[in-house]
Amino acid sequence: MQPRSGTEAGPEPGFRDGLRNDLGWALGVVFRGYAKAASAAFTDVPGGPRGYQVLAAAARSEPGSQQELAHHLGVDRTVMTYLLDDLERSGLIERHPDPADRRARRIAPTDRGRALLGELDQRLGAAEDHVLAGLDDGGRRAFRALLGQAAAHASTLDPAAGGSACALADDDRPGAGRC
Hints:
CATH superfamily: Winged helix-like DNA-binding domain superfamily/Winged helix DNA-binding domain
Strand content: 5-15%
Low-confidence stretches: 1-10, 162-179
Distance between the termini: 40 Å
Strand order of the largest sheet: 1-2
Number of domains: 1
Number of strands: 2
CATH class: Mainly Alpha
Largest sheet: 2 strands, antiparallel
Helix content: 55-70%
Radius of gyration: 19 Å
Order of helices and strands: HHHHHEEHHH
């Protein structure tokens, strides 16, 4: 391998250029950067990024049952139980009996949970800005729009995995398979 000219560190230009058009490589790099930045933003939330997802889903949609929430987020129902226990102990969510099915529990954020969610949204926005700093504002909007379209289409190809980004991420994390 030839040394790189200039003061830039990292792989030589041919290596980087050869991968630039590789979708898997690009998605992996962006995903890992996003996951790292999001994890750092949520260090004080029970369950980290997954706890944030539960809190956000509970606050932004009609309060669903614990089982519906687990399915929507692609989280194993046993893991969801422990996660909800931690969020409830922290005073961020509450479980209420479902009037339509007394065996089910509805998940709802507390006032404290809603307040924390606003703060977490700001932290996540800063983390996203950091990951997408290589794009100008128009590029960021276009990237988000195109990624959303691609994700919506991919979700139709495999509806069971559509809500489960963590299922894909499990292979890269310690404790894989416990999503």
